[in-house]
Design a protein that fits this description.
This is Probable membrane transporter protein. The protein is an all-alpha fold. It contains eleven helices and no strands.
């Protein structure tokens, strides 16, 4: 596919904004995947190209958090491995089946996540008692990795919520460690989709440059402003993605709700 300079510039801008938001709260795919599809990129190729650009942006965020000492790589190694394995499975599945059925489940998960941050205990910057052990974290990340490879938008937000709600991390620490988990799932899906010949390389690399810059800005904001900004942004991105998914008349949950009202 060929794109004019105007389209490339707009997609690069979308990648910059998405990279900034993704580094702080996840959900950058809410911006980039619809932008790619609006430019005429088919759904699976849009997912694959988004994985290329977001892998660069997430790498930049990991570096920014790590150099400030916020990431314990030993602690997150096995969960990251779980996310990698799950994402490979998801990326294989998305090339073989219609992913639209997930669109009915995801809005419910996003609403639940927003509700946790709105009405649940306030997430602090300090660690609390973990409700589940490391083995459970690995299993959960296999599932979230599958979702990221299969569909994607909101995966980082789900990971952050899981680390805070079930594994006792402070919000900034959870955000930093989520970048490692997200990077593992992004790379796994990217490799799998590359093998399937789905990646648009020139477009993805142009967006990657902008995504790197946005991710550095987002990581800086997350570290300087902290949970005062991350918490409301998680809620906002969760609800925005919910609205977008439910606005699609083909969404199974939308169709069910419409049928209930008729």
């Amino acid at each position: 596919m060929e794109f004019g300079l105007d389209i490339l510039a707009l997609l690069a801008l979308a990648a910059f904004v998405a990279g900034t938001i993704d580094a702080m709260a996840g959900g950058g795919g809410l911006i980039t995947i619809p932008a790619l599809m609006a430019a005429g990129v088919p759904p699976v190729q849009a997912l694959a190209t988004n994985k290329l650009q977001s892998s660069f942006g997430t790498s930049s965020a990991v570096y920014a958090f790590a150099r400030r000492g916020w990431i314990d790589f030993r602690r997150i190694a096995w969960p990251a491995g779980g996310a990698f394995v799950g994402s490979v499975g998801g990326a294989l599945a998305v090339q073989a089946v219609d992913p639209s059925f997930l669109a009915g489940l995801v809005p419910l998960l996003l609403i639940a996540m927003a509700g946790y941050f709105l009405f649940g205990p306030k997430a602090s910057e300090t660690e609390t008692h973990a409700r589940l052990g490391e083995g459970a974290l690995v299993v959960v990340m296999v599932g979230l990795g599958f979702y990221d490879g299969f569909f994607g938008p909101g995966a980082g937000s789900f990971m952050t919520t899981t680390l805070v709600a079930l594994f006792g991390m402070g919000l900034v620490s959870a955000t930093a460690h989520t970048k490692c988990l997200n990077l593992a799932s992004n790379i796994a899906a990217l490799i799998t989709l590359m093998i399937g010949g789905q990646v648009l390389w020139l477009l993805g690399l142009v967006m990657a440059v902008a995504s790197i810059a946005g991710a550095r800005l987002g990581a800086h904001l997350a570290l300087t402003v902290g949970s005062r900004l991350i918490r409301p942004l998680l809620v906002t991105m969760s609800l925005a993605l919910t609205v977008k998914l439910l606005a699609d008349p083909d969404n199974p949950l939308t169709a069910w709700l419409r049928a209930m009202w008729i």
